[in-house]
Amino acid sequence: MVGGARVSDSYTDLEIQGAGMTSQRTRDRMAERLQEQGIRHMQVLNVMRRVPRHLFIEEALAHRAYEDTALPIGFGQTISQPWVVERMTEILLECGPVGGRVLEIGTGCGYQTAVLAEFFSQVISVERIQALQKKASVRLQRLGLEHCEVIFADGMSGWPAGAPYSAILAAAAPWGIPEFLLEQLEPTGCLLLPVGKGESQELTLVQWSGQRWESRTLGQVKFVPMLGGLKGA
Ligand code: SAH
User: Is the CB of 227 under 6 A from ligand 1?
Assistant: First the structure.
């Protein structure tokens, strides 16, 4: 196409590599810090060394992309801190459902989506804020992650059209475990989500025991609430 960019234009190698505070060295240091904090899952760490987190954040904040902190992405939302992204991915992989289809609720900027894309054959991600959904969709496309689909939808009731899933991960906290999400899981699948009303919530893993759904809590995390309804551009 002559004149003007297409949305499908890929990022250049230089953009992906980054420089200075967004360089490979900075990504490696982030992974080292995660290891110092007790993270041992080398496969996930290696993926986080590769995924250019700085391209998921507005340029003005890109130099802070590899700090272990949540950062604003607009519309009152934040990109999850690297430690949380690593832990949630690691927990899903330890449940066993690698390779299948995964549903993510709350795309945000799409960083967790891109990390999941390395381990699952299809990632369906739903986001209730249209401007975020559009941006994340373009980003993932520009990174060549064609097996990621970002849908503008309220994920409160999951995304039944893509069910059953090997795993469901939510990046926003409902007050309790939504039953209809369990109905969209394969029998061997698992649901990982923050649960609770307050400033911090319990990271909760739900799996089928053969007789019933069993849930385990895995520590306190801080996520935004899962809200119903859509927010157009
Ligand atoms: N892992 C993401 C986290 C984004 S914050 C990242 O690193 O960018 C959580 C996101 O969940 C927000 O963008 C918010 O709009 C979205 N969200 C909250 N409730 C939702 C719902 N019911 N359906 C879909 N998305 C929802």
Answer: yes
